[in-house]
Specification:
Blueprint lengths: L4 E6 L2 E6 L2 E9 L7 E6 L2 E9 L3 E10 L4 E10 L6 H19 L1
Antiparallel strand pairs: 1-2, 2-3, 3-7, 4-5, 5-6, 6-7
Length: about 110
């Protein structure tokens, strides 16, 4: 894959592609933190392992942020298996990732 860099704003969330890495903002409420494997924790930010994979990507990590009301999945990091450059395809991939992640954390 090329060392592309692409950043778009979608639904007020940053979606960033750097080479084969995909970083995305999320705001999903986490209802079941006990099932998640913690990698690291700093203050109120918790890094968790997410191993969600399909033919296009593998979501490897999530960032949990705690508020007084809820724990949220703030960000996800995925390794892309194929190159995508079209903004609409990036948005569709992001929405699919959110669906897959929601199955695990809610």
């Amino acid at each position: 894959m090329s060392k592309q860099f692409k950043k778009i704003l979608f639904n007020n969330k940053d979606l960033v592609l750097i080479g084969n890495l995909f970083y995305a903002d999320t705001d999903i409420i986490v209802n079941n933190t006990e099932k998640l494997k913690v990698i690291n924790s700093v203050n109120n930010v918790i890094y968790v392992e997410l191993n969600i994979e399909n033919d296009s990507y593998r979501i490897v990590k999530g960032v949990l942020c705690k508020s007084r009301i809820h724990t949220y999945l703030c960000n996800i990091v995925a390794e892309m298996k194929k190159e995508i450059t079209d903004d609409e395809e990036i948005k569709r991939t992001y929405l699919k990732m959110l669906e897959e992640v929601a199955k695990v954390i809610t």
